[in-house]
Amino acid sequence: LGDPGPLEDVVIDRYYIPKICLREAQMGDFIRYHYNGTFKDGKKFDSSYDRGATVAGVVGVGRLITGMDRGLLGMCVNERRHLIVPPHLGYGSIGVAGLIPPDATLYFDVVMLDIWNKNDKLQITTLSKPERCNRTVENSDFVRYHYNGTLLDGTPFDSSYSKGSTYDTYVGTGWLIKGMDQGLLGMCAGEKRSIIIPPFLAYGEKGYGTVIPPQASLVFSVLLVDFHNPKDGVFLEHLEVPESCKRRAVTGDFVRYHYNGTLMDGTLFDSSYSRNQTYNTYIGKGYIIPGMDQGLQGVCMGEQRRVVIPPHLAYGENGAGKYKIPGSAVLIFDVHVIDFHNPADPVEIETVFRPEGCNVTTRDRDFVRYHYNCSLLDGTRLFSSHDYEKPQEVTLGANKVIEGLNSGLLDMCAGERRVLIVPPHLGHGESGARGVPGSAVLRFEVELISMEEGVPEGYLFIWHGEPPASLYEQMDLNKDGGIPADEFSTFIKTQVAEGKGRLMPSSDPEKVIADMFRNQDRNQDGKITPDELKLKSDEDKEKIHEEL
C-alpha cells in the first residue's frame, strides 16, 4: 500500500493496564512518571531513568509537548504506554539543537507513577474496626501505631514492622506530616486504615531524602495499637459487682486479687492465673503502679473490674522489659477481687441464731464442742467438721485454734450459730497453712454443740471450796504412807462425783488425772509421798516468794 504518510495525531499503545485503576490522569492533574525517549531507529535521546529522577508536572495545560500532553491523559497509576509523537506534536521543524533534529518523530515508553490534584483531599479507607470502640483519637492524643508506607505505585519506602517497634507520637501538634495528623483522627485502638496522602499534605516539592521523591503521594497502611492523652486518669469499667457489698476497699487495705494484664491490642503480658496464685498487696501505699493503686480503690469483695491505665500512671516511656510492656503503653487489667482486709480489723461476728433463755455463755478456758464449715470469701471450701464423726473439741484460750476463731467462740450459748469473718492476722497470717493461701480472709460457719466450765490456766483440777485440811491423809486410802496412781485416781474421781471439785474439761478425763499424778510424783517412783504433794496455789506462792 506504500507509505501512509505523516501521522496526524499521537499514536498510543496501552501495552500494560493494571487490573485496578482507581483514577485516570485528567487535564490539570499533577503527575509523576518515568520515560525513555528514542527515535525510530531506537537511538535514545532522553531518559528520566538515566537522570535517576522521575518527571513531575501538570498534564494537559501546555507545559509539555502537545504529543506528550495528549499521550498521558487517561493513564492509570502503574499503566505503561508506548507513544509515537509526530513532529508537529513534538518539536516541529526546529527540533532541539544538538539533541533532536528537525521534523523528528519521537517514541516514548512511559510508566505512570502518581496522579493528584490540588483539590484532592485525604483518602481514608477503614480496613477493619473492632466491635468495641469506647473512644477515638483526638488532637493532642499520644498514639502508638504500626504502618507500612508506599508510594502510589506500590514502591515501599518505610515500615515500622521492619524496625520491630511501633511509631509513637502526638497527634495534631505538628510532629507528623499534615496528612497523617488528619488521617489518624477518629481511629479506634485496634483499627486498620489505608490513608492516601497527596503531596501537599505530605513532603511536597522537596520530598524526603532518597526514599520519597518530590511531589509524591503516599499510601500508609496503619494499625493503631493504642493511644492515650497526657491528661487521662484511670478508666474503670465495672464488669460484675456483687449485690451485697457491705464494705469497699480503701487506702491501707490489703487486697488479694487475680488479674489478666493486656495491652490495648489484646496482647497478654502477665496473668496471676497462670501462676495459680493471687497477687497480694496493700493499696494506696505505693507498692504497685499508681494506676492500679487508684483502680483498686472502692472495690467490693468478689467484684470483677476492668482497669485501664495510661502509661504515665503505669510504666511510662521506658515500659517494663520483664513483662514485655513497650514504652508509652496503655495497660488493661481485668481484675477479680478475692478478698481484702485491714491490719486493724477485728473478727467480724454475725449471730445467725441464738436460743431463747440463753443465760450461760462460753468464757476463756471453757471446754467446747462445735461444728464448723470453713471457706474463703470467694466460696472456696477449705475444711468442715462434718467430714468427721465427732464435733471439734477445744479448750478456749489454750492456743489450740487460730486467735480469730477462739474470739468468735466466746460468749456463745449452746445451740447458737454464728458466721465469723477472720482477717489473716487473726488467722493463718502471710504464710497461710496447709490448704489455706497466705494472707487469706477466712469465713467460718460455727454452731456450738456443748460447753463445760473450764479451769484457770495451768490448772488441771480446782476445788469448789476450801481443800480438806488433811488432804494427804484422806488421799492415802489404805494409810500405808504412799499414794499410788490408782488411789490418786479414785480419790479425784470421788471429789468430782461429790461436787467438791472439777477436772479440766477434756474428752479424756483419765489422761487429765494421769497428768495430775505425774506432776505430783516428783521423783517418778510411782507413788506420791507427803513431801511431794502440793496444791497448785501453794506452788504459785512459793514461786512468787523466790522471785521476791
From TrEMBL:
Keyword Chloroplast in the entry? The reply is no
Name the source organism: Vireo altiloquus
Residue span, EF-hand domain: 471-498, 508-543
Q: What is its EC number?
A: 5.2.1.8
Q: Name one GO molecular function term.
A: peptidyl-prolyl cis-trans isomerase activity
Record carries keyword Ribosomal protein? no
Residue segments, region Disordered: 517-548
Q: Which GO terms describe its cellular component?
A: endoplasmic reticulum
Function, in words: PPIases accelerate the folding of proteins during protein synthesis.
Cellular compartment(s): Endoplasmic reticulum
The protein's name in its UniProt record: peptidylprolyl isomerase
- Cross-referenced Pfam families: EF-hand_5 (PF13202), FKBP_C (PF00254)
Listed under catalytic activity are: [protein]-peptidylproline (omega=180) = [protein]-peptidylproline (omega=0)
Superkingdom as given in the UniProt entry: Eukaryota
Alphabetized, the UniProt keywords read: Calcium, Endoplasmic reticulum, Glycoprotein, Isomerase, Metal-binding, Repeat, Rotamase, Signal
